[in-house]
Structures are given as structure tokens and as C-alpha cells.
């Protein structure tokens, strides 16, 4: 090859490669920016959490969970909550649509089939039925004679992502909606967005109406009533805290922090026999 021609030819090829490469980079960057600012399904806020508490003094490490007995292993698909009826039968709702129960003699039974893959919190009622949260339908009532929808709408909007439910002795039903924006299958987007889309709702059985008690909760999860039913505790998972909502007395309708800066995201909550609460924590980050 003529050495005079070689120089410019190589330079041209290099230029072309450089041009192609920078166009490619530019296209990537553009796609990235468009995705983030225009097509992203979330519009995130920074999530600010207080510094972790000195966990060893507040929550000394123990290995109690190492000695739990695993019940129904291999028989239960993603059970979310549990409840126990007056006879001591334990119930749970699984993601394959079953309400399963464990008899006192240790035998597990597929009790009721509900055509749903989105069952979450479950509780017993005074009348002997169960209430189950279904992320698609709302709050369901399940009894020996079938399934009915108890609450499906609030203020004209469909209730989605009902998460946990509890019945008070006056028949009122309190339940949480984890997110009004995201659904069960993309719940993590709610955490990423870090905006409060959760609610605490009340179903009134005499009027057959549902109302909003609290709005702007950060992934409203477990709900539980105090022993005297003078207040209710609702967990805000990615705020690592639980709120106390007063139902009776001077503070009725007021909200305060029940516990915060927990070492994990509070999920389910249940009243313990001694009047304290059991809170299940999950590792969010
Ligand atoms: C356990 O109790 C349930 C309910 O009484 C009954 O249906 C079941 O057959 C019992 N199972 C065994 C193994 O005894
Ligand atoms: C209660 O309201 C729901 C709508 O949210 C409706 O579907 C249902 O039939 C009503 N039940 C009664 C007993 O009126």
C-alpha cells in the first residue's frame, strides 16, 4: 500500500468509529434521561430516616427465633397473616387463594377457596366469620356459607391493596390500605417513591359505608386494637414506625407516634395476652 494513503485512511476509520461510539453513548444517555424523567412509573422523594438507635441497648440480640416451630411447611404458599378463632383453630390466607386452617389435633385443612392470588391480612369476627383483605376486591367476609365483599369502595374510588383488618367489639371494621398508587406486585415501587400513599379506613356495618380515618401513611400495614379498644395501632412499614390512633376519650380522632425508629419495617401487628403488641419486622433495605 502507498504509505501516503495509509495515514488519512486510518484516521478516517478512527473518526468514524469515534463518531459511532459517541452517538451510541449519546443515545444511551438520552434513553436513560427520558426513562427517568418522562417514562418512569415513580416520582421519588428522598427517604429520610433518623439514625439507627443503639440497637444493643434498646434491642439486645437474642436467638429466640431459632427455636420457633415451623408449622405447615411445604403446605402454605406465602401466608401473610394469622388469626385464631374461639375454638383455638388457627387460620391463614395463602397466595394460591386458600383459607387454610390448623386444627388443635395438628391436622391442616384446605378450608375455603377464594378465587384470588392477592390475599393478605386476616381476622376473626364476633359472629364467627373471618375477614380477609384482598388487594383486588377489598375486604371479604368468609363464613361456612360462602364469601361476600364487605367493603370495596371508599368515597367513590375502588379500594385496592387492602392490607390488614381488625373488628372492634362495636362491630366497626378497621383496615389499612398499603398504597393507593401501587399494587401488590409492585409494592417495592412504593418504597422507592417514598411518598405516603397509605390509608387507615373504617367500615361501619350499620350504614354499610367505608370512611377514611387517616391518609398519607407510609405503606400502612398491620392494624391492631388495644386491650380496651381505646386506641388502634397502625404500622407504617418504610417509616420504621407505628402510629396510635385514638378511638375513645378526650383524644378521640387524634394520632400520635406509638413507637418509632424500629430496627426493621413493621409489618403485621397483634395484641399480646398481656396487653402489649407483637410486631413482625421486615428488612426493607
Ligand atoms: C382433627 O380434627 C379435625 C376437626 O375436628 C378433624 O376433621 C380431623 O379428622 C382430625 N384429624 C385427625 C388426624 O385426627
Ligand atoms: C354494601 O355496599 C356495597 C358497596 O360498597 C354493596 O355492594 C353491598 O350490596 C351493600 N350491602 C348491603 C347489605 O347493603
UniProtKB/TrEMBL annotation:
Its main location: other. The chain crosses the membrane at residues 17-39. It holds the Pfam family Str_synth. Residues 167-250 form the Strictosidine synthase conserved region domain. It is found in: Vacuole. Signal peptide: none annotated. Coiled coil: none annotated. InterPro entries: 6-blade_b-propeller_TolB-like, Strictosidine_synth_cons-reg. GO terms for molecular function: hydrolase activity. Keywords: Glycoprotein, Membrane, Transmembrane, Transmembrane helix, Vacuole. One of its GO terms (cellular component) is endomembrane system. Gene3D superfamilies: TolB, C-terminal domain. Belongs to the strictosidine synthase family. This is Strictosidine synthase conserved region domain-containing protein. It comes from Liquidambar formosana (Formosan gum).
